[in-house]
User: Fold this.
Amino acid sequence: MKEVIKIEGGHALKGTVRISGSKNATVALIPAAILANGPVTIVGVPNISDVESLAVLLRDLGVDVCFKAQDHIIIDPTHMQNRPMTQDAVQKLRASYYFMGALLGKYGRVEMKMPGGCYLGPRPIDLHLKGFEALGATVNYEHGAYIIEAKELVGTKIFLDISSVGATLNVMMAAVYAKGRTIIENAAKEPEIIDVATLLNKMGAQIRGVGTNVITIDGVETLGGCFHEIIPDRIEAATYIVLAAAAAEEMTVENIIPQHLESLLSKLEEIGVEMKVDIDKVTIKGRNPHLKATDIKTLPYPGFATDIQQPLTALLTQAEGQSIVTETIYTERFKHCHELNKMGANINVMVPSSFINGPTRLSGAEVVATDLRCGACLVIAGLIADGITEISEIYHIDRGYENLDGKLSALGAKIWRETIA
Ligand SMILES: CC(=O)N[C@H]1[C@@H](OP(=O)(O)OP(=O)(O)OC[C@H]2O[C@@H](n3ccc(=O)[nH]c3=O)[C@H](O)[C@@H]2O)O[C@H](CO)[C@@H](O)[C@@H]1O
Ligand SMILES: C=C(OP(=O)(O)O)C(=O)O
Assistant:
């Protein structure tokens, strides 16, 4: 038995959709909260399976986790114990690796399996480990788990060869209690980094420079509980904006920070999508039947986000001419193209680029959500395709999109789940 999403295409969407709290911020904020010595309340937590997996991991560590109201979580690490993290739940998501930095920072020791997450080609964690070693830790890999330990963590200068989001946050978490000053150079600048540093500073950490590529962390003796509200999810927002450009009569996407979406919004404007951008929302004014093809290169923030290129590809199948999407972050992130071709798209992939020839009429087909954003891409394609699209492996979608089918149904989409043999 498997659960699938089915979509009957061709129904124009209309209305307003509210964006949830950021997945990629939340999944780092939750492990960061265990660095406190008191309860941390986080508001705006999206109802996604990555959060459920993190709650399982927290409870296994003896952390009190309480979900309150719709989107509040209270994390109280007062009685936690530093147990090995070798259970299967570690591999259900990528972000379990933030427990490496958090546990190392708090206890000077962590034992953990390799994390999971979307397979986008190889996703090494060498920069995280090098960062921990630079702070004074030793790293060993025994019986399928990393054992990272240090008698004392001491601040130092760390240059990241790649401005990795995960490595920046992991080193930051390990360094908050380290002796002296840690300087991370070539740090990632994604908005989620700022959100996590904001939480840690509210807890009492001394972190400066976030949002630039040099972050300074002065170690402190203790951290306390606090209250924090998560930033809106810029990738979920981007997905709905692209989806509106593909399938809406008129649609407003609210609870967004438009500055986080500038690279996407300027691209959409360039290809002919008519929009009105406000302080915290954007209204997309219907589908342009003569969208222009374009070229995109994914880059670290504030460049064009790799997580958005897959959903955008569904829209580019409708643009006139050849669009070229070049991936510089995950050069193999093109499985969605094969799935779109099953629906009638005309896309050639020559790593690190996809060549999208449009416009093509899409037809419903049985397709596979090979990863989270591939799933989002196929949902958009299904909304504009003739007939019924059946998407399998939807647990990927549920890792990162809160109530996707509910939000789309409210906009007038014909979308539902079925359990099939
Ligand atoms: C939970 C989360 O926030 N996931 C996001 C995060 O993933 P994640 O934090 O895993 O991505 P990174 O920013 O670390 O990866 C960027 C690049 O650096 C490489 N690299 C990274 C670490 C390392 O130790 N060695 C190494 O070579 C990666 O293979 C990749 O090519 O940022 C990605 C890039 O914006 C997004 O697609 C993911 O949605
Ligand atoms: C790749 C993604 O997530 P993760 O890093 O959690 O696998 C994503 O959000 O698109």
The domain at 23-229 is CATH 3.65.10.10 (UDP-n-acetylglucosamine1-carboxyvinyl-transferase; Chain). Residues 24, 93-95, 117-118, 120, 307, 372-373, 400 surround phosphoenolpyruvate (ligand 2) (CB under 6 Å).
